């Protein structure tokens, strides 16, 4: 489980990070948006640096930018443990992967819901993670696109020869969809407004525990 920080309460960031640590969340998901590749704006490197100074939880940066290459270094300097960028972006994909790896940071490629999985083919031996969007990127709180489940299964088959590549799903994760995603082959789920940040009286810590339990019991 990866906590989607953009869904949090900016005024409670310190408390929320502490709860996520107690909940032993696997990763933090840090959304960066340019208002053009996707309609809204997202988080920024100075914020990443501040968070990095407060936590040991690995931070995965998700760049939703037309031109990710120009910004990669800023996020690496700020402390990104993994940088994922969209395969639909306008920059040279192979060069950007190479640059990120040269900095000893993990690299992921992200696919929008309609992007064919075969676009990954030239890069499979170079990457650490594939992130499938289960929604159109950039808008929080959308319902999962149903084809996502087939796409996860197809990707999982496709990656049989690449057992080290992590399959991450971003968007539309709820207590109902999460176990299905895992069953189809997902390893890491971005948890946002549908789960650990959903408006609810309960604490983030309890919501993480609850989701973990739901996934474990459904899969048992
Ligand atoms: C959407 C972001 C997600 C976001 C998903 O573009 O990349 O990280 O958390 O939102 P929810 O969790 O509301 O589906
Ligand atoms: Zn994201």
- In quaternary terms, these chains amount to single chain
Alpha-carbon distance between the termini? 18 Å
Shape: globular
Cofactors and ligands: D-xylitol-5-phosphate, zinc ion
By helix and strand content, what is the structural category? Answer: alpha/beta
Largest sheet, described in full? 8 strands, parallel, barrel
The rounded Rg comes to 16 Å
Helix proportion:
25-40%
Uncertain runs are none
Order of helical and strand elements: EHEHEHEHEEHEHEH
Number of strands: 8
Strand order within the widest beta sheet: 1-2-3-4-5-6-7-8
Mean of pLDDT: 97
Strand content: 15-25%
In short:
With 220 residues, the chain is α/β, with parallel strands linked by helices. It contains seven helices and eight strands.
What does this structure look like?
The protein is an alpha/beta fold. Helices cover 33% and strands 19% of the residues. The protein contains 7 helices and 8 strands. It has helices spanning 13-22, 45-52, 69-77, 93-102, 148-158, 177-184, 204-219, and strands at 2-4, 27-33, 59-64, 82-86, 106-111, 129-133, 166-170, 188-191. Strands 1-2-3-4-5-6-7-8 form an 8-stranded parallel β-barrel, surrounded by 4 helices. Helix 2 (45-52) links the parallel strand 2 and strand 3. Helix 6 crosses helix 7 (204-219). The chain is globular, with a radius of gyration of 16 Å. The two termini are 18 Å apart. The mean pLDDT is 97. D-xylitol-5-phosphate (DX5) binds next to strand 2.
